[in-house]
Amino acid sequence: MSADGAHDGAHSQRAADLGAPVTPQGRVLADLLAGYVERVRDEAGVNDRAGAFPYETFDGFAKDGVLGGTVPAELGGLGVGRLYDVAVALRTLAEADASAALALHVQFSRGLTLTYEWRHGSPSARALAERLLRSMATGEAVVCGALKDSPGVVTELVPDGSGGWLLSGRKTLVSLAPIGTHFFVHAQRRADGRPAGLVVPLVRRDSRGLRVLDTWDGLGMRASGTADIAFDACPVAAGDVLERSRVNARDDAVLAGQTVSSITMLGIYAGVAQAARDIATGAAARRPGPPPAAVRTLVAETDARLYALRATAGAALVNADIWSADRGGDPAERGRAMMTPFQCAKMTVNTLALGIVNDCLTLAGGAAYSADHPLARLSRDVRAGWFMQPYTYVDGVDYLSGQALGLERDNDYMSFRALGPRARQ
């Protein structure tokens, strides 16, 4: 299989525990990020307390080609297409600051999904994807995804009467927003009396009617540049809309793209757990005298759980890479074959990472119970994984139990969210 997203001998010769990249492109990206780790770690505490986005770091990412990490080499990027390698890169950065890793994930995710559109989409989607990918490779384009509607709001795309569209609504929890130049906005389209459809229009930051709202005062991930985005009849060109499906289509083929878009975040929480382990064991080792039996037990259990976490995440990522490269067979089966291991891994990683960080607080002792201690930041950041789609914990339980019990349900979280309360009936 190809080196940009498929299985080959490299994985069979290396433990899939997120220890190192497995492709040359992944190693180039890892080496670039390694030059930033010390700086990111040094600034993490200050940025966390201030809720400040690390602008200078991301300026460097743009100049050094990091922001084009997942853009194909043919279009000027680094060409990292292996999901496993992207997760390893995010793990490395998250060990220094999970907020920065979450923001970078947004750009990497768009590169991966736009690459799919460039290779397999409709002619208009391919043209749109190529235009953006080339700009991402140079660091000119920073592309955010705006998925979640603000409470009580439905973001909608309606005809403008002259062949284009108008977008109105409000999105929340949009990370990387302070430097975003383009926003892919998940919206509902209602036109000509047809059933509501799910679409993803592209809106430039300088579009009329778009406002980036400085609303973020989060519990964790405070330096991720997360904001609300408001849209007031923003004009959207006819060719700048990616078609998805109708609401409640119940097509599991969409799960493949949703897996590709989000599974690399597992690396972020592996990085948080690793950072907590290193801080806590370092503190325990520096204490005078032999460590008590309880400390030794917690250290051993922490390392065992950290290995299980990384191995579980790695296995799910290898699986996703294999299925991502295999476009034969039933698309719905392919979607489930990617999403189900991802959700098993996500639930496992979220549980283990939280437990590891909690026990590391115990190992570090009372010194860690201070707002400016690194473990305090990690204890807040690690909780973000529980509510990120796909899926939140509740939706993940519904999905996995539905698969196990053969229950009929709409597995597209954008679709059942669009249905509101009716989605769970």
From TrEMBL:
Domain Acyl-CoA dehydrogenase/oxidase C-terminal: from-to ranges: 264-384
Q: Which SUPFAM superfamilies match?
A: Acyl-CoA dehydrogenase C-terminal domain-like (SSF47203), Acyl-CoA dehydrogenase NM domain-like (SSF56645)
Keywords in alphabetical order: FAD, Flavoprotein, Oxidoreductase
**Protein name per UniProt:** Acyl-CoA dehydrogenase
**Cofactor(s) demanded:** FAD
What Gene Ontology molecular-function terms does this entry list?
A: acyl-CoA dehydrogenase activity; flavin adenine dinucleotide binding
Which family does the UniProt entry place this protein in? Belongs to the acyl-CoA dehydrogenase family.
Q: Which residues form the Acyl-CoA dehydrogenase/oxidase N-terminal domain?
A: 38-140
Which Pfam families does this entry report, sorted A to Z?
Acyl-CoA_dh_1, Acyl-CoA_dh_M, Acyl-CoA_dh_N
Cross-referenced InterPro entries:
Acyl-CoA_Oxase/DH_mid-dom, Acyl-CoA_Oxase/DH_mid-dom_sf, AcylCo_DH-like_C, AcylCo_DH/oxidase_C, AcylCoA_DH/ox_N, AcylCoA_DH/ox_N_sf, AcylCoA_DH/oxidase_NM_dom_sf
- Which superkingdom is the protein from? Bacteria
Name the CDD domains for this protein.
Answer: ACAD
List each copy of the Acyl-CoA oxidase/dehydrogenase middle domain by range.
154-234
Per the UniProt record, the source organism is Microbispora cellulosiformans
